[in-house]
Amino acid sequence: MNPDRLTDLARRCGVATDHVGWDEERHEASPETLVAVLDALGVAADSPEAIEESIRQIDERPWREFVPAVTVATEGAGNTFCVHVPHGNPVTVTIVAEDGRIIAPEQLDVWVDPREVDGRLVGRATFAVPDSLEPGYHRIHAVDLATSASGEAPLIVTPRRLHTADRLLGGQRWGLAVQLYSIRSADSWGVGDLADLTGICEAAGATFGADFVQVNPLHAAQPQPPIEASPYLPVTRRFLNPLYIRVTDIPEYEGLTKSQRKWARKVARGFLAENTAADRIRRNKAYRAKMEALELIYGVPLSRERKAALRAFRQREGKGLKRFATWCALAERYDADDPRWQGKFLDPAYVKKKRRKLSRRIDFYIWLQWICDQQLAAAAHAASSSGMSIGVMVDLAVGVGRHSADAWALGDVLATGVSVGAPPDGFNQQGQNWDQPPWHPRRLAEAGYTPYRDMLRTALRHAGGVRVDHILGLFRLWWIPDGMSAAQGAYVHYDSEALIGILALEAQRADAVVVGEDLGVFEPTVQDTLRERGILGTSILWFEQDRDGAVPPERYRELCLTSVTTHDLPPTVGYLAGDHVALRARLGILETSEEAERERVERERDAVLDLAHERGLLPRDTPLAAPEVVDALYALIARSPSVLLSVALVDAVGERRIQNQPGTNARQYPNWCIPLADADGEVVLVEDLVSSARFRALAETLAAAGVPRT
Fold first, then answer.
1. pTM of structure
2. Phi, psi angle pair for 707, to nearest 5°
3. Please, which pLDDT band fits residue 668 given cuts at 50, 70 and 90?
4. How far is it, in rounded angstroms, from Cα 169 to Cα 276?
5. Three-state SS for 331?
6. What secondary structure does DSSP assign to 652-673, as a single string?
7. Where are the alpha helices (DSSP H) in 100-206?
């Protein structure tokens, strides 16, 4: 096999043949990795003959398209698109705008030699996307006048820049970062819920002056226990997890029979001790109880107004909602290893028959999503009513699990035979495999990016902001072929102009701020692109290091959300003590010795503390465990020009335990199962926030540092 031709084919398909790692060394992808990744893309590369044929097919693919599968343009950027017809045939092209207007685009005087494809000579005509065309979803329509053949395809015009970012410039606002499941109230059923989010928004906004509450992904998990603990490994990124429903807030709850309400009150009392237990969140216990109660409430007839609201919700969410509910009804009966998932359940006719038999159960899962939507809307309303200028900031995970609703419903828009992950880095020096199928770049484009934009639209419906986890994945993703280690993957590039542009378009329509989590290994142009499109980046105090040591906060980016810590690190008290080093050493996921790693971390930590000392924010003899150290570090990031500051709720109450250790499983560490507690290990409830002296001190620190309420 000619390695140069394999390299050529890989690059034509957007597969990187090497990358610069976190160690600043260049790492080559092996031929075996390239062949496997290309196979996942549907490109044969297992022999010299296959490579040559694949190169030919790639070169000829656009010439076989009458109109391109999709055109994504930036407003006013002078974009073009091409149509292909038999050489010499006249063609007429129109654009049907989203508002129904018919526009004739200008044909440009661009000569491209015709090409012989499949035994015929094909010509190309180039047209300009009108600069006056506003951002939105339009369509290209073309007619071959010689043959009367016609074709059409989406034309998506995206904003040059997201205007919500510009409203933030010149000021600074702060918000609270919350792992919702971890903070309960007296009325919770063992897990924080959407009513608790309402209470958090009211406390953070009205009492402490926060402008947003940033929550973990609220995406749906499995329809029946056991359910996945990680909010970053959902079954869909479009719909919500019924685990977060507050049962007693559903209007139909009052329609239960006397005996049913008595049973529900007994269940609620059973969770009183659970709500104050500091050892572990028990999702499955909570979910079983909630599902039993929700099934009872579902049986209560709806009022005329409520029926109309449910009907409107179903119409708005369309086929995607019905497919998701169908998957839920099937998944609660057939486990992931059932051969029907790879057989009969891929046959639309068979699924249609099953859908008729499961219609009531499918309606139940649709109803659950409606209840979730209503309760999230109530939390968003509470946020704005409390004076928040942004409100609820939702979190969008990188992907979904292999045996998930999206993997079933979206078909070949997701790639198979590979998983998303990360190469070795500072989080995990052995690399990470997240066991998630990635978007297939070409097939997603051929679908007009519809699954992607539907997901964004639903996620943003009640959000004032969205944090996009690993936004670097909209530029390139680390694909790991099945059977290989995380370190043996390769980067696959995406059409970032399209993905970032559609993200900006949906956020602009929702009037939402977008924050991209751009930590880790990335290409130099990524942060420039995000800034130009009005998308905030992310800075973590501990990661802001260069060759000279800790970066002074005055040099941080302006269009950025800056925080001291993140959910993949210990709370600040734990980080200062080096808890994460001890944990990684115990789990055997360090590539260096514990002593060397601790020395490195302490050197970086002390460099940050020196900045606080130099600016008079912290006396040098202050013990590391003192709350004043945490306050000083938040005062330090307030010296940055960053428009948003994120305060971790764990820091606001004195929690020390780490929520998640990347690259580990439940047998190694109880990831995503740690209840919120204070410095003494006592559980903190939502009701406790308003009177929390620790929270108040931190809020006053920010106010003293000049972070105003906007």
1. 0.96
2. -90, 105
3. very high
4. 41
5. helix
6. HHT--S-S--TT--TTT--TT-
7. 163-166, 194-202
